[in-house]
């Protein structure tokens, strides 16, 4: 089935940071190549002139579902965007050009060819509700901030190990604001030893939960011995530690700001109660799971679709007598991470999840294999809850397992 009858113009677009190559097919079947500069003004002029010359809907196929060019074209009501999986386009290109030759105009032509020849394989981009789109952006960027903080914290820990390892023994949470502020205030052993005990005590008790550990920490500071007297090692790493600590502090503040915004939006969502019923979701994973499923109950037709979308369902490749099972490469890494992290947390809060995890470990599976296998089962359960808009009930699920004589409870 051709899309020619539905649109006045069909376009394949290969995006770049400074310009976009496009392959345009008109109603009479003729095609032409063009280059559009990446600027709001250039895109505006190109698309409006094209629409004036060819009234009607314009279809644009491209390798993106978000990004500057997508945002620029979304504002036009006469434009319908068709995101193409990059892997699909890459393999189609290889089929047409075994030599591996590649250029931007060719990719634009291939995107158009896929749109024309395989319309049932490419679905138009559907805009979600503004709240869930904003929530999706916030939870993903929050995770990037957490990863960024982790990177700096690891560097800070390594710097302290070179000259001042004692704080790593005094504090268990090395990514906390208390720890980082401690390092900026007392970045070396000689500095902390010169500090008054009352000053240290007031600092440690300022967070409340540290109050019971003040006396042991004061004794540890008093009896601490320098790791090295090498001034070059001490001064160089002290400067690095202070620098890293000062980089971590604003990230901690930013994460707290994101948390406040995420929480405010999340609790306004009708499905929030459903995800809060899940074991181990906490304040971070609930919003991420909500974003993974979305609010459109027609988005997924089966639990298997969700498992594939999340990259949890394994892929089997067969050739002759050889079969190879591996995990799914073409998926959102953030969504897969969301389900695996939640599954790992659920082991601590769900009775049957703990039994299943232990069962997988006894079979010789690694921690990550066991968690992914558990995520596979959780998606089936959550899909049912999501489809029927029913909060999860652990007692009810255990009852069902017992009625079915599940070997898990045997």
Automatic annotation (TrEMBL):
One of its GO terms (biological process) is DNA transposition. Pfam families: DEDD_Tnp_IS110, Transposase_20. Residues 11-165 form the Transposase IS110-like N-terminal domain. One of its GO terms (molecular function) is transposase activity. Signal peptide: none annotated. It comes from the Bacteria. Residues 274-358 form the Transposase IS116/IS110/IS902 C-terminal domain. This is IS110 family transposase.
């Amino acid at each position: 089935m051709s899309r020619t009858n539905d649109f006045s113009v069909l376009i394949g677009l290969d995006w770049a940071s400074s310009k976009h190559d496009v392959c345009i097919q008109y109603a009479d079947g003729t095609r032409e190549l063009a280059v559009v500069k990446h600027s709001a003004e250039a895109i505006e002029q190109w698309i409006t002139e094209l629409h004036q010359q060819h009234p009607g809907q314009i279809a644009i196929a491209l390798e993106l579902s978000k990004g500057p060019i997508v945002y620029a074209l979304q504002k036009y009501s006469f434009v319908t965007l068709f995101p193409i999986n990059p892997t699909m386009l890459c393999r189609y290109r290889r089929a047409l050009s075994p030599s591996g030759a590649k250029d931007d105009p060719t990719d634009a032509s291939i995107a158009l060819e896929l749109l024309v020849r395989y319309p049932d394989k490419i679905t138009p981009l559907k805009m979600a509700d503004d709240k869930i789109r904003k929530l999706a952006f916030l939870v993903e960027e929050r995770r990037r901030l957490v990863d960024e903080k982790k990177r700096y914290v690891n560097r800070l820990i390594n710097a302290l190990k070179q000259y001042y390892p004692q704080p790593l023994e005094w504090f268990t949470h090395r990514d906390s604001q208390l720890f980082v502020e401690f390092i900026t205030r007392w970045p070396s052993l000689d500095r902390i030893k010169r500090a008054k005990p009352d000053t240290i005590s007031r600092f440690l008790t300022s967070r409340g939960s540290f109050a019971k550990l003040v006396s042991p920490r004061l004794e540890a500071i008093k009896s601490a011995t320098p790791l090295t007297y090498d001034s070059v090692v001490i001064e160089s790493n002290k400067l690095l530690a202070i620098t890293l600590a000062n980089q971590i502090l604003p990230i901690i503040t930013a994460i707290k700001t994101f948390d406040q915004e995420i929480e405010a939006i999340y609790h306004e969502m009708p499905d929030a109660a459903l995800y809060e019923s899940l074991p181990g979701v906490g304040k971070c994973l609930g919003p991420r799971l909500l974003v993974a499923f979305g609010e459109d109950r027609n988005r997924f037709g089966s639990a298997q679709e969700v498992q594939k979308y999340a990259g949890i369902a394994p892929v089997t490749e067969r050739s002759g007598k050889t079969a190879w099972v591996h995990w799914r490469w073409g998926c959102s890494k953030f969504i897969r991470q969301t389900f695996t992290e939640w599954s790992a947390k659920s082991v601590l809060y769900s009775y049957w999840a703990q039994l299943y995890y232990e069962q997988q470990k006894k079979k010789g599976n690694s921690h990550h294999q066991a968690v992914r296998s558990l995520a596979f089962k959780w998606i089936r359960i959550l899909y049912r809850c999501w489809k029927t808009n029913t909060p999860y009930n652990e007692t009810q699920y255990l009852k069902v397992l017992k009625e079915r004589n599940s070997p898990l409870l045997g």
